[in-house]
Amino acid sequence: MPAVRSSNGFLQQLKATMRDMDRTRQQIRDEDVEMFDRKVAPVREEAFRAVSEFMEMYAEPMEPLGDVEPVIIPHQPGKQGGAKKTNRGVERQDISPDVSTVHLEQEQKQLPSIPQDQPALQSWGNLREDLVELNDLIHEFSTMVHEQGEKVDRIQDHVEEAHGNVQSGVKELGKAAKYKAAMFPVAGALIGGVLGGPIGLVAGLKIGAGAAVGGGILGFAGGSMWKKRQSKQLDIELDKMSDRQSQSYPDFKTTPSGDVTQSDTGYHRRPSA
Amino acid sequence: MAYGRGTFDKTNPFADEDDDLNGQDGDDGGWDLMRDELATRQGNISRSTQRCLGAIAESERVGVATAEELLHQREQLERTEKNLDKINKDLDVSQRHITSIKSMWGGVINFFKKIPQESPPVAAEEETKVQAAPKLRQAMEASQNQPRPAGEHPALQLRDESRYAQGTSQSFQKWNAEYEDNLDDMSTGLGTLKSLALGLNDEISEQNAMLDRLGDKTDKSEFRIHGTNKEMRNMLK
């Protein structure tokens, strides 16, 4: 809209001038402010009126912002279509706030809104929810682990105590087994005695009998030998005696057993009986 | 009712904050409003990101603490298992004693039965202990070694929202950079959290298996102890 554009230039100039006035106003001394106002006020009023009229006139057509890029992407330098330019937010920092309110309303109609990026928003929301859920989960987990930690503690203590008890129990059993084992030699001795006694007795009896018999036989044999020896000596002596008495008779003798032998050395007589 | 502090430059929406009285585009009011809205949103986003970062960091912290507790409990369980094994061995020895006490020929019987050996290869056990729960330890280390933003905890950092309302390109770029940094931090934090979670999962599974074993061994030990007690009582009668 060329007409608007050219009026834009005018408007801008006007606005700039008004701002200049404001600035100057702020820069003058306080005592001069009144005078300044007095001089400037009428001109200002008229300027305001003109501008507001213009704005009202052209406010509506400026509304459709279809041609204006609505997205305010921060990276990109500003995009304003010409249409926006007629939004005159006249800055008045101290005086005439009413004008600014008028403009404000108009601006609000015509401002493009920062668009909603739905997918991003959704994913952001999901992310937030997930994070919160995750946080809760972790806390719950931690609590459970902590509780169970106490149980594990008790388990460990119990088992350790049990182990100690079993160990002392086994030691006692070992002692008992040792005592029992110490009994064995005594028991063995007893058994040996109990068993060996009768055996020895029986054996001893037998041996005693044997010894007696043997001894008897030996004695008899010895006695017999002695007797024989004695007899022999006696015989020899007898023979000697009979030799001196009769040398004319032939040497022979008869014994009742009938066996007579002649020999140079003497008489051999078969032992009788 | 000042909406902004500077004019809105045509070419650069976030021109310098100096009052630009070049009389250019007079759209100040509208753009100021938008700028404010933008600033608010920036602030919101920043705060939201900070909260998320804070949540992630806190989750990580809690996770690491839980992991340490779990490791401690693992040691306790291992000690318990060793104790139970010792108990079983002792019960074997006691059985020998009982057989020798019970009957005359017990000693003879024992002579032929094997002697319960002390056989723990202690060195090998130590090795496996060091490697226990490697994933979890790794995740824990990774979390603890992570470079934190210098200074305060991310959740505690307050962002001055008015910063963003200045409408300058530098401040915006700064905000943007911070935003991206925050997102990066969130991403790394989540990565650490994931490995932490995996490690915790493994640890819990292993400890479950251990607990099952412990349960079985305890039942067996209890049964044997009862039997041994009964035998002894019979002997003493």
UniProtKB/TrEMBL annotation, chain A:
Protein encoded by which gene: STX17
Keywords of this entry: Membrane, Transmembrane, Transmembrane helix
Biased composition (Polar residues): 244-265
Database matches in InterPro entries: STX17_N, STX17_SNARE, Syntaxin, T_SNARE_dom
Membrane-crossing segments per the record: 181-201, 207-226
GO MF: SNAP receptor activity; SNARE binding
The protein, known as: STX17 protein
Source organism per UniProt: Branchiostoma lanceolatum
GO biological process: exocytosis; intracellular protein transport; vesicle docking; vesicle fusion
This protein's GO CC annotations: autophagosome membrane; endomembrane system; plasma membrane; SNARE complex
Residue ranges annotated for the T-SNARE coiled-coil homology domain, each copy included: 114-176
Organism domain of life: Eukaryota
Family annotation (Gene3D superfamilies): 1.20.5.110
Region ranges (Disordered): 238-273
Automatic annotation (TrEMBL), chain B:
Source species, domain of life: Eukaryota
Listed Pfam families: V-SNARE_C
GO biological process, one term: synaptic vesicle priming
UniProt-recorded Gene Ontology molecular function terms: SNAP receptor activity; syntaxin binding
PROSITE patterns associated with the record: T_SNARE (PS50192)
InterPro entries documented for this protein: T_SNARE_dom (IPR000727)
Alphabetic keyword roster: Coiled coil, Protein transport, Transport
Residue span, T-SNARE coiled-coil homology domain: 39-101, 173-235
Intracellular or extracellular location(s): Cell projection, Cilium membrane; Cytoplasmic vesicle, Autophagosome membrane
SUPFAM superfamilies on file: SNARE fusion complex
Biological role: SNAREs, soluble N-ethylmaleimide-sensitive factor-attachment protein receptors, are essential proteins for fusion of cellular membranes. SNAREs localized on opposing membranes assemble to form a trans-SNARE complex, an extended, parallel four alpha-helical bundle that drives membrane fusion. SNAP29 is a SNARE involved in autophagy through the direct control of autophagosome membrane fusion with the lysososome membrane. Also plays a role in ciliogenesis by regulating membrane fusions.
Subunit architecture: Forms a SNARE complex, composed of VAMP8, SNAP29 and STX17, involved in fusion of autophagosome with lysosome. Interacts with multiple syntaxins including STX6. Interacts with EIPR1. Interacts with STX17; this interaction is increased in the absence of TMEM39A.
Entry similarity comment: Belongs to the SNAP-25 family.
Name of the featured protein: Synaptosomal-associated protein 29
The organism's taxonomic lineage, starting at the top: Eukaryota, Metazoa, Chordata, Cephalochordata, Leptocardii
Gene that this polypeptide is encoded by: SNAP29
